Amino acid sequence: MFEVNTSLIRYWEQEFDIIKPKKSKGGVRLFTSKDIDQFEIIFHLVKEKGMTVHGARDFIKNKQNQNDFEKLEVINTLKRTKSFLLDIKNILDEKAEDDL
Fold it and tell me: 7, 32, 36, 41: which has the fewest C-beta neighbours closer than 10 Å?
């Protein structure tokens, strides 16, 4: 989904308190949609905005940035919704072509 190594995901999990996946008895991480949202925010801050891990962690913890943080969460939710709707549209378009 993020096109990064799993080791980076595990690293971010250790560095950011906001990511708390549950683990199965076998140690497999089970990420919730909230965890995915948090990863998207971290990815945006580190990979897209060029922040350091320390800077991104401070940004997330800083109460002054809470409004920006909430905006990022809304943007990520809207992106996922758009992707979901486009997938449905493509399926319907393909079905309509098949029916012709």
Answer: 7
Phi, psi angles (nearest 5°) of residue 51: -75, 155
Residue 65 binned pLDDT confidence (cut-offs 50, 70, 90): low
Sign of CA dihedral 78, 82, 83, 87: positive
Q: In the chain, what is the straight-line distance between the N-terminal and C-terminal CA atoms, in Å?
A: 34
pTM of the model: 0.62
In angstroms, the CA 9 to CA 81 distance is: 23
CATH of region 6-99: 1.10.1660
Place of tokens 């990520």: 76
